[in-house]
Design brief:
Helix content is about 25%, strand content about 25%. With about 220 residues, it is α/β, with parallel strands linked by helices.
Length: about 220
């Protein structure tokens, strides 16, 4: 399986930290955020990675190179202007190939068992959901008997980690577009499965949350109080 790390966001809420450093290269626990993902993907046996980038993307390529230093092979999908999640994945499809692939948001940290994720035949997506964090109490989707629904409850938050078939993007055209409408349409057709992750997950959307993750990792934490 191939994997894509989404790293093209501007990181407006992280300013001024992201004025001169792309968000994926901000450091927590002594290493860049994106390197945490690369190491976990390599540990899961996923060696072929695609990384998209836009804002200060040359810094990401300079820092990671071809991935050989980390035991993986990295190919890049540069974007002149960030294409949003859906548009960024669509642009990278030629690099990802015809089989299902894993996508991980570059601005989360988690201990999800990436090697244990699988997508069922006939499904277009498999999503990892988590309990709603304080900054997103309304959640995103419902999980009912292993199926993800756009309506109903209880509500959970999309972790930013999912498996997708390229066919999810059938009919789309190049350019910027969000992923959520494609997922909701697939949910309406009962073609999205999911699982709830009860372990650790951090959404690193602000300097305060970055500092909290850094403190947590630097303290060698392995479980929450």
């Amino acid at each position: 399986m191939k994997a894509m790390i989404l790293a093209a966001g501007r990181g407006e809420r992280m300013r001024p930290l992201t004025d001169h450093t792309p968000k994926p290269l901000l450091v927590a626990g002594g290493k860049p955020l994106i390197l945490h993902h690369i190491e976990r993907l390599a540990a899961a046996g996923i060696r072929e990675l695609v990384i998209n980038h836009a804002h200060l993307g040359a810094q990401i390529e300079a820092a990671l190179g071809d991935g050989s230093a980390f035991g993986v092979e990295i190919r890049y999908s540069p974007e002149e202007q960030a294409l949003e999640t859906g548009g960024g994945i669509f642009r990278a499809l030629p690099l990802l190939g015809p089989e299902p692939f894993l996508v991980v948001n570059g601005d989360v940290w988690t201990d999800v068992d990436l090697a244990g994720l699988a997508i069922d035949a006939g499904d277009l997506a498999h999503l990892v959901l988590v309990d709603n964090p304080p900054h997103h109490p309304e959640g995103d989707f419902a999980l009912v008997d292993g199926r993800v629904r756009s309506e109903g409850g209880p509500r959970l938050t999309f972790s930013g980690i999912g498996l997708y078939r390229p066919q999810l993007f059938d009919g789309q055209r190049a350019g910027a577009f969000p992923l959520a409408p494609l997922l909701r349409q697939a949910m309406a057709n009962d073609r999205v499965s999911g699982r709830r992750h009860d372990g650790h997950w951090f959404d690193i959307g602000t300097p305060e949350r970055l500092a909290a993750l850094d403190d947590w990792l630097s303290a060698g934490r392995t479980q929450a109080d």
